[in-house]
Amino acid sequence: MKTKISVIIIAIVGISFIMAAWPPQSWKAPASADSKLNPLKDNAVATKEGKKLYDQTCVVCHGVKGKGDGVAVPGLTKVPADHSSATVQGQTDGALYWKIENGNPPMPSYKATYLPTQIWELVNYIRTLAAKK
Q1: What whole-number distance in Å separates Cα of residue 121 and Cα of residue 12?
Q2: Which of 20, 81, 89, 107 is 20 to 30 Å from 72 at the Cα level?
Q3: What's residue 10's pLDDT?
Q4: How far is 64 from 87, CA to CA, in rounded Å?
């Protein structure tokens, strides 16, 4: 009997966690962010530096391939974005910059952590995570 109750409690807690994260919350940058142009667009060196930053900071939540499946996911209140998805890749560089700069809990703001150049480097690297067809 104790085993059945334990299984039921675990199931309820698991379902509650899933439902708290569903449906995914829409997070949009302000329209003004769309006009911000990436000064490092198509810069291979900047993209390489962006990967280093991504590996240091973003992988824990977004995962190695940016799928939103990092090791920290079970402890988060929201599911991280899938950086390879059409939803993320369809945003402007300026919108991605704004999101990295400002954050959206549990994702922190990186305004005080990274220089603007470093945020653009992250944007460049995120572009490399586009889902392969």
Answers
A1: 42
A2: 89
A3: 59
A4: 18
Q: Cα(17)–Cα(64) distance, rounded to whole angstroms?
A: 23
Amino acid at 125: Y
Instruction: List the structure tokens of 8.
Output: 């039921």
Rg of the chain, C-alpha, whole Å: 17
Dihedral of the CA atoms 89, 131, 61, 108 (nearest 10)?
Answer: -10
- CB under 8 Å, gap of 24 or more: what pairs does 31-34 form? 33/92, 33/94, 33/95, 33/97, 33/98, 34/92, 34/94, 34/95
pLDDT of residue 33: 97
3-state SS assignment for residue 36: coil
Q: Which amino acid is at 109?
A: S
CA 53 to chain centre: 13
pTM above 0.90, yes or no: no
Q: Rounded to 5 degrees, what angle do the CA atoms 132, 105, 15 make?
A: 75
Three-class SS state of 69: coil
Please say whether the dihedral angle defined by the alpha carbons of residues 112, 113, 115 and 119, taken in this order, is positive or negative.
Answer: negative
